[in-house]
Design goal:
Layout: H1 14-31, H2 48-82
Helix pairs in contact: 1-2
Length: 87
């Protein structure tokens, strides 16, 4: 017999669904080109096409950070449920 630990399939929880949404939202926003392929409204002389994409750089950073923090919290909670040490 092998001493390998039991491998369980991942569990889908509401927190993990939020994490997935945080990571998928920027891709959907950027791949839906028809929503931002225009020049108006301009912001301080910058066409909408450009400032919209730059805004998503900041939004993506915030969403990725949020997903990471939620993932860390989820992993700590799972480790404490198993009685293991958290990192």
């Amino acid at each position: 017999m092998s001493d390998a630990p039991e491998v369980r399939p991942p569990v889908v929880t509401p927190v993990r669904a939020v994490i997935a949404l945080c990571l998928v939202a920027p891709f959907v926003a950027m791949l839906w080109v028809g929503s931002y392929a225009k020049t108006d409204p301009a912001l301080i002389g910058i066409p909408f096409f450009y400032w919209y994409q730059m805004l998503w750089v900041l939004i993506s950073t915030a969403l990725t950070m949020t997903a990471y923090k939620l993932w860390q919290r989820d992993q700590r909670a799972r480790a404490s449920q198993k009685g293991g040490a958290s990192k």
